[in-house]
Automatic annotation (TrEMBL):
Annotated source species: Candidatus Woesebacteria bacterium RIFCSPHIGHO2_02_FULL_39_13
Pfam families (alphabetical): SET (PF00856)
Positions of the SET domain: 7-114
Gene3D superfamilies associated with the record: SET domain (2.170.270.10)
Name under which the protein is recorded: SET domain-containing protein
């Protein structure tokens, strides 16, 4: 679900990546743009080979994934880039998306999907088409980069234990969200991004 007004974003078709989210007007660095809300599903019960819905499944923890509400456009339509202009992080048991830098009008909003190393992904359908100078050709991180990301996320985690453990649980929107993330967090993520992607 987008947290910024629709006057700031639009969904358009892209050349190689299906639909994507684009800025209708400039968006300031650090702006909280979305929350990946939806139904929590047990990963062990999910048939990844047959299920087309896997395209929108967001990692939640080692047991659960978030399946978003698809009836209206949401942040599940934000595409991957190997050098994204937005980032995802946990916030009070939610997965929020914010801008890493100032976004210009007409820029595509992108995140890194941060998929684990492709040890069991053969043939792997997770090809990257971002075509940035840092493009790795895959949505998967290397072993070392994934470890860096996990360590970073664990340090930044709210330390809140999730109470949403059952299959029927849904991540419902908060009544109130912060409008921005801290500059300190942005600096840390940019340093991590540089370390991971060069």
């Amino acid at each position: 679900m987008f947290l910024i007004p629709e006057s700031y974003w639009e969904i358009k078709k892209t050349k190689n990546k299906g639909r994507g989210a684009f800025a209708r007007k400039p968006i300031e660095q650090g702006t909280l743009i979305g929350d990946y809300v939806g139904k929590l599903v047990h990963l062990k019960d999910f048939d990844f080979d047959k299920e087309k819905k896997k395209l929108y499944l967001m990692f939640y923890n080692d047991e659960l994934g978030i399946y978003p509400y698809l009836k209206k456009p949401g942040v599940h339509l934000i595409n991957h880039s190997c050098f994204p202009n937005c980032w995802i992080i946990r916030y009070k048991d939610h997965t929020i998306i914010f801008t890493l830098k100032n976004i210009k009008k007409k820029d595509e909003l992108t995140i890194s999907y941060l998929l684990p190393p492709k040890t069991n992904c053969k043939p792997c359908p997770h090809k990257c088409f971002c075509r940035c100078k840092n493009c790795t050709g895959t949505l998967h991180l290397t072993e070392s980069d994934y470890k860096k990301w996990q360590e970073f996320q664990d340090k930044e985690d709210d330390k809140n234990k999730s109470k949403t453990k059952r299959l029927a649980d849904k991540l419902k929107p908060f009544k109130k969200y912060p409008k921005f993330v801290s500059k300190r967090l942005i600096s840390k993520i940019k340093a991590l991004q540089k370390e991971m992607y060069g």
